[in-house]
Write a structure and sequence with these properties.
This protein has 262 residues and is α+β, with helices and mostly antiparallel strands. The protein has 6 helices and 5 strands. A 5-stranded mixed beta sheet has the order 1-2-5-3-4.
């Protein structure tokens, strides 16, 4: 009877030992799984850190690009603003010049209303006021001496010129294509230049037009207004034109583009 309790005790020990082994085995398995989870989570953390670092680097690059882009846009806007201001100023100046031209034309036509339009013609051409005076009004054939009848006409024009001392004057002599040669004149170049000089000299000496405002130019036969094949056409081409222009230094200064940085 004593052997039976011993046996039972032994069986109980075996049972609990077996149970403990199963628990230990289960615990080891759970530990292995937890280690795998930890490894997986560590890998995810590393990936997230790498991604975060990359994003931070990209954000830094974007901030630099954004700053550079903003500066570029600012300079572009500044350039556009300067150019727009230049265009506005140029437009205003051109409108002012057009208004002045119209006033000049009206004043000249009013002053010369009693002169035949075939002898004196006033127009705006190429943005400039042209007063075209026929050859027969100003000179005798082949001569560069001003006729007495032309002095009144030139005097009226001189009054308008003196009233607008901010403008320059170019006096152009024009001929037809018929060759000329005499004791005082070599050819049409010579004749056209001498006639232009005679008009400039008359305006200076008789009507005190500032000589620094005036230029005498001989254009010979090379800028005809009509066909030289007919007498009527040749008569139209023989003329002296007084061209009233803005002062060239001011005109070119106006056309200078503004300095643009960047």
């Amino acid at each position: 009877m004593k052997k039976q309790p011993v046996l039972i005790s032994f069986l109980i020990i075996i049972f609990f030992t077996s149970c403990n082994k199963d628990k230990i085995k289960n615990l080891k398995n759970q530990l292995a799984l937890k280690k795998q989870e930890v490894t997986f989570l560590e890998e995810q953390v590393n990936n997230l850190q790498n991604t975060n670092t990359s994003l931070l680097e990209r954000m830094a690059d974007l901030s630099i690009v954004s700053k550079t882009g903003a500066e570029s846009i600012h300079e572009s806007l500044k350039s556009l603003s300067q150019q727009y201001g230049f265009i506005q100023n140029l437009t205003a100046q051109m409108q002012s010049k057009d208004s002045l031209n119209m006033a000049l034309v009206m004043n000249l036509k009013r002053s010369l209303f009693d002169i035949n339009d075939e002898d004196v013609f006033v127009e705006v051409r190429g943005g400039l006021v042209h007063v075209s005076i026929s050859d027969k009004m100003l000179f005798k054939s082949g001569s560069s001496k001003i006729n007495s009848q032309a002095e009144e006409v030139l005097g009226k024009i001189a009054v308008i010129i003196n009233d607008h001392d901010q403008l320059d004057i170019i006096v152009e002599g024009h001929t037809d294509n018929v060759p000329i040669e005499n004791a005082c004149t070599t050819d049409n170049w010579d004749l056209s230049a001498k006639r232009a000089t005679s008009v400039v000299r008359f305006l200076e000496q008789e009507h005190y037009v500032d000589p620094t405002r005036m230029t005498a130019a001989g254009r010979s036969e090379y800028i005809p207004k009509a066909d030289n094949d007919s007498e009527t056409g040749r008569s139209i081409n023989r003329r002296t034109e007084i061209v009233i222009t803005p002062k060239l230094d001011q005109f070119f200064k106006l056309l200078e583009a503004p300095a643009v940085s960047g």
